[in-house]
Amino acid sequence: MPQRMYEVRWHGRGGQGVVTSSELLALAAIREGKYVYHAPEFGPERRGAPVRAYTRISDEPIELHSGIYSPDAVVVIDPSLQGEVASVTAGLKEGGLVVVNARSPAPGLVEQVRKLNARLWLVDAYSIAMEIFGRPLYNTPMLGAFARASGLVKIDTVLEVVQERFGRDPKIAELNAAAVKRAYEEVRPYE
Amino acid sequence: MKLLLTGNYAAAYAVRDAQPDVISAYPITPQTPIIEKLAEFIDSGELKAKFVRVESEHSAMAALIGAASVGARTYTATSSQGLLYMYEVVWWAAGARLPIVMGLVTRALGPPWNIWSDHADFFTVRSSGWTMLFASSAQEVYDLTLIAYCVAEHRDVLLPALVAWDAFEVSHTYEPVELVEDATRLLPPKGAWAPPLAAEDPASLGNLAYPEEYAETRRLMVEAVRRVPLVFAEAAGRLRELTGRDYSRGYECYRCEDAETVFIAMGSVYGEVRSAVDALRARGVPVGALKVWLYRPFPYEGVARVLDGKKMAIVLSRTTSLGAMGPLATDVATALALKGCSVKLVEFSAGVGGVDVTEDDVVAMYKAALEREGGTYFWRGR
Questions:
Q1: For residue A20, what are the CA distances in angstroms to A139, A164, B322, B359?
Q2: Are residues B298 and B339 in the same domain?
Q3: B57 and B178 part of one domain
Q4: CA nearest A25 in B: which residue?
Q5: Which residue range is the domain that position B257 belongs to?
């Protein structure tokens, strides 16, 4: 059955770039001829505090402006947040997708994912970011991981929009493209 | 060209494409990104406008009144307390017949302090003579801002126009927006209207008018406002030819023809209303939806024609109107009364101060409305 709309909720901390991840996903989906919606969490911005961003992707025009309460996928870009199991899996659809920045899943997450009959994918974006940027920047590696785990957008499209988005500084564009590729290749389903 | 823009950036792109001569504004959340984007356009040379920095919203509008008095194309934007601080000169701009265009990002009025959407600020200027448009998406913000210039500067109108949209759900949400490739094909040429003042012919504006003279200026305003729907339809028709998007009636109907109940809404919640209509229709419930774009002058006849013969009208008001039905519901009641229609009217105060309204809420409102008498009810949300 064709799915009308795909909804993604991004979890991170203020300043880490969940909003950029969501924006880049939306840009990639537009490029592939889809309709999109991309929104930050509405409210005062607080560096370091848990924050969310939201992406909707559809084959048809999207008119909704309400929040996303039953996402098809959640992406946890900050490694310290996967332990907040109830918060990150809240409302996740049965059979949904969870992509986490971690080497191993937090206690309780695997049980919750099994209960929801969801799929869990892990990627060590911390190591990728430290090797490539020398800093814990997770937005582009986690987008690469999500692209692979969801199959929602093509890696080449993601690389194109990353090149454009960071195009003002070719060096930074190159590093981000490398981070996307590494995470795309290294993300694995957790069995 | 399709861009991914927030509602606020869509407004800034429309203003860039309209190429105003003078912009003045004072920052306030959630409006500020519009003016920041316009400052970037001025800095990059894409927009050749003079930006007048001021110490308040009152001065921002006053600066535009001065500029428009000698024929400048102008823009400002504000929200909430900013609009109320500007209030005196908002009316002055209309009375002086100056085609100023303003963006209004709707935000709740304090106290308590709240930065989220509520239409209370919008409704405060509903009888001022401004043409009032309401957009429900970033695309509509772009399109209606261009149409606002066409209507305001038309020689049959010469009244200021504002475009409103919801804080955050539209102002800070990114959506695909298609720009008009050559906006000069849509907009009137600059200088097509005769400003009241000119440097080479000194005069003054806003002198004392004796009762008969004052009444005559107001009568002329009433006539100008009556011409707005036709001018709006003409401008919207030109936009439709360029883009295929049609605003010409001033409102949109969705599945209304055979509906027994029609929801009426303005702004971002309309998407949820449409989804609720589809969900109810899938269960065999005959409902439809009507979205208002042109709020002032209000399309009484069109709305009454849509609602004539229906059993129930449900108005979603994103505000609390204390002591009376909300303005939108009152307007719908007036439309019904003028046509002698007997339709049950239920108003829900919903989404107040930024409360999220979902498709499920709207479906639940339908059920609640069936069980209740006509009147206004407060919707508490999830």
A1: 6, 13, 41, 28
A2: yes
A3: yes
A4: B4
A5: 251-378
Selected for mutation to probe chain B from A66, A68, A69, A70 (highest B CB count within 10 Å) is A66
Q: How far apart are CA B343 and CA B320, in angstroms?
A: 23
Contacts of A27 in chain B (CB under 8 A): 4
Answer yes or no: are the C-beta atoms of B8 and B105 closer than 8 Å.
yes
- The reply to whether B21 and B158 lie within a common domain is yes
B174 contacts in A (CB within 8 Å)? 23, 26, 36-39
B191 in the same domain as B129: yes
CATH number of the domain where residue A72 is located: 3.40.920.10
A36, closest residue in chain B (CA to CA):
B175
Note the pLDDT tens digit of each residue in B289-308. Answer: 999 999 999 999 999 999 99
Indicate if B191 and B336 belong to the same structural domain.
Answer: no
Determine, yes or no, domain membership for A146: yes
Set of chain A residues whose Cβ sits within 8 Å of the Cβ of B4: 23, 26-27, 30, 36, 38
Whether residue A23 lies inside any domain: the answer is yes
pLDDT per residue as tens digits for the range A57-114: 999 999 999 999 999 999 999 999 999 999 999 999 999 999 999 999 998 999 999 9
**Contact residues on chain A for B168, CB-CB shorter than 8 A:** 39, 42
Instruction: Let me know whether B66 and B154 are in one domain.
Output: yes
CB contact under 8 A, A63 and B136: yes
The arithmetic mean of pLDDT across residues A2-9, rounded, is 82
Task: Give the ranges where chain B is alpha helix by DSSP (H).
Answer: 7-18, 32-44, 57-69, 80-95, 120-123, 138-152, 211-243, 270-282, 300-307, 327-338, 359-371
Give A111-130 pLDDT, tens digit per residue: 999 999 999 999 999 999 99
* Residue B202 and residue B83 share a domain: yes
Count how many domains chain A has: 1
B256 and B180 within one domain: no
Q: Return the structure tokens found at B205.
A: 């504006």
Q: How many CB atoms lie within 10 A of CB B241?
A: 11
B105-160 per-position pLDDT tens digit: 999 999 999 999 999 999 999 999 999 999 999 999 999 999 999 999 999 999 99
Contact A38 B116 (CB under 8 A): no
Cβ contact B271–A63 (<8 Å): yes
Q: How far is A111 from chain B (nearest CA, A)?
A: 28
To probe the interface with A, which of B169, B172, B175 has the most A CB atoms within 10 Å?
B175
End-to-end CA distance of chain B: 38
Structural domains in chain B (count): 2
Question: B325 vs chain A: nearest CA distance in angstroms?
Answer: 25
* Inter-chain CB proximity B356 and A67 less than 8 Å: yes
How does pLDDT run across B255-267, given as a tens digit for each residue?
999 999 999 999 9
Does the pLDDT of residue B2 top 90, yes or no?
Answer: no
Q: Which value, to the nearest 10 degrees, does the dihedral of the CA atoms of residues A101, A107, A110, A111 take? A: -150
Report the alpha-carbon distance of residue A160 to residue A167 in Å, rounded: 10
Of B243, B278, B311, the position where a domain reaches its end is: B243
Counted across chains A and B, CB pairs separated by less than 8 A come out at 65
Question: For residue A1, is it within any domain?
Answer: no
In terms of Cα–Cα distance, which of B310, B270, B68, B268 is closest to B171?
A: B268
